[in-house]
Design goal:
Layout (H helix, E strand, L loop, with lengths): L11 H28 L4 H8 L3 H8 L3
Helix pairs in contact: 2-3
């Protein structure tokens, strides 16, 4: 069973909206930390390894942020 942090009796639409907002907040936090890592000299290879992706994709997804 996957725990979502939402009570089973929550309205599904309300729970979905809350999950979407949590995802957006997590995306913003990740973007900020990638920027911070780059500012501190980490390479795209190091960041990509942590993210489980390729350096090219990490750069594509986060270089303009």
């Amino acid at each position: 069973m996957i725990r979502t942090g939402f009570a089973e009796d929550d309205d599904p639409l309300t729970a979905l909206h809350a999950a979407l907002q949590a995802r957006r907040a997590a995306d913003r936090a990740l973007t900020a930390q990638v920027r911070r890592a780059r500012n501190h000299g980490l390479t795209w290879q190091e960041i990509a390894t942590l993210l489980g992706t390729t350096p090219r994709r990490a750069r594509r997804d986060y270089a303009k942020t």
